[in-house]
Amino acid sequence: MSSPSLSMAIASYGCTRAIKNGDVPLRGVDVRPVEVSPIIAAFRRMVRDLEFDICELAPTTYVIARAAGVPITALPIFLSRRFHHSGLQVRTDAGIDAPKDLEGKKVGVRAYSVTTGVWTRGILANEYGVDNDRIEWIVDDEEHVTSLKLPPNVSHAPEGKSLSAMMASGEIQAGFTSRAGIGRSGAPTAGWEAAGKDDTPGYRELFDNAPELEAAWYRKTGVYPVHGCVVVRNDVLRAFPFLPDVLFEAFEEAKQRWLADLRSGAPDVPDRDKYAGVIPFVGEDPLPNGLEANRATLETLVTYAWQQKLIPRRIPVEELFLDTRKANAA
Fold first, then answer.
1. What is the fold, at CATH topology level, of the domain defined by 5-81+224-329?
2. 10 Å Cβ neighbour count for 254?
3. Distance CA 269, CA 273 (A)
4. What is the per-residue pLDDT for 186?
5. What is the pLDDT of residue 272?
6. One fold for both 5-81+224-329 and 88-221?
7. What pLDDT score does 273 carry?
8. Degrees (nearest 5) of the Cα angle 317, 322, 326?
9. Which of 37, 109, 213, 227 could cross-link with 80 by S-S, CB 3.0 to 4.6 Å?
10. Contact 174/90 with Cβ under 8 angstroms?
11. Which Pfam families does the UniProt record give (predicted)?
């Protein structure tokens, strides 16, 4: 019997390179890679139209989509991570000296359900006592899951205005950097970041000692924020029940090859700068896979999404992530 031919849309990272270039094949599967740039555009195509068999997805988008009944299931494979005391900039003339000073201000985020925003708002509320309901969140893009009902303190930017421009003019006093907010303009399309800007001299990070705070928070909580996860359409899972183990095995092997390069000191290892700084406190594997290894992180993300009114209940992680044989053994 011939191998199934399955489409797959994932971004290019160090940990996915060996899969995308064919060095690590998916056992028994003929993969048809689909390049989507930026990968964020694939997220909405997946949750709206189920366009791909296998797809990378922002974890908050996935949790919201599952709560809305979208027939997809995630595997405990995580393609990117970052901490979130950094990445929220404030205008230096806005009178924002501490997290609580954000209350009563306008803060820009590309879309309210952006995973970066969810992680950061959760930290602000649970670690610093910030009342997120007292902040007006300004968005300038669509939510990936169109049925999502936004809280009343979320407003859309005026027609034709970007968060970047509103931050520059002082119409908003703070904004998330890069793709999460003021570093791009408009919906996700190729080259969209060129239209935005951040790291402007008139802005500063909310936390000026973010790396130290992030390390301390991890040591206290064991939470290491996830971003890209791997999802599969439910009809594909039913047709090919062997697929979860195959995917977990392949993505783990590709990651281990990248880690070997990272540890060897080889030049030009992709994502070296992103992860080298966190290895001293998160451990030698900065991208751990598996449900149990990520339980505290996933439960925290679900709690934050529920607190922020993105989902109607705190969904058990066992309902959300398919715990494969390989994941159990990890």
1. D-Maltodextrin-Binding Protein; domain 2 (3.40.190)
2. 22
3. 9
4. 86
5. 94
6. yes
7. 92
8. 120
9. 227
10. yes
11. Phosphonate-bd (PF12974)
Domain boundaries, the chain: 5-81+224-329, 88-221
Using 50 as the pLDDT threshold, list the residues of the chain that sit under it.
326-330
Q: How many CA atoms lie within 13 A of 233 on its CB side?
A: 17
Strand order in the sheet with 5-9: 30-33, 5-9, 54-57, 229-233, 72-78
Residue 304, SS3 per DSSP: helix
Q: How many other CB atoms sit within 10 Å of the CB of residue 280? A: 9
Q: Tell me how far apart the alpha carbons of residues 110 and 135 are, in angstroms, rounded to a whole number.
A: 15
Q: Is residue 38 reached through a cis peptide bond, with omega within 30 degrees of 0 on the bond before it? A: yes
DSSP 23-72: SS--TT-EEEE---SSTHHHHHHHHHH---SEEEE-HHHHHHHHHTT-SE
Q: What CATH topology corresponds to 88-221?
A: D-Maltodextrin-Binding Protein; domain 2 (3.40.190)
Nearest Cα neighbor of 180 from 141, 133, 208 is: 141
DSSP letter assigned to residue 91: E
Nearest to 76 by CA among 192, 236, 247, 206: 247
Indicate the burial class of 295 (C-beta count within 10 angstroms; 0-12, 13-18, 19 or more): middle
Q: What's the pLDDT at 330?
A: 40
Closest CA to 206 of 81, 101, 82: 101
Q: Which residues contact 264 (CB under 8 A, 6 or more apart)?
A: none
pLDDT at 188: 87
Q: Which two tokens stand for residue 25?
A: 């094949």
Whether the CB-CB separation of 186 and 165 falls below 8 Å is answered with: no
Indicate whether this model's pTM tops 0.90.
yes
Rounded Cα distance, 181 and 212, in Å:
24
Q: What are phi and psi of 107, to 5 degrees?
A: -125, 130
Three-class SS state of 329: helix
Q: What's the distance, Cα to Cα, between the start and end of the chain in Å?
A: 31
Q: Any idea how long the chain is?
A: 330
Residue 196 phi, psi dihedral angles, 5° rounding: -110, 180
pLDDT tens column, 249-271:
999 999 999 999 999 988 899 99
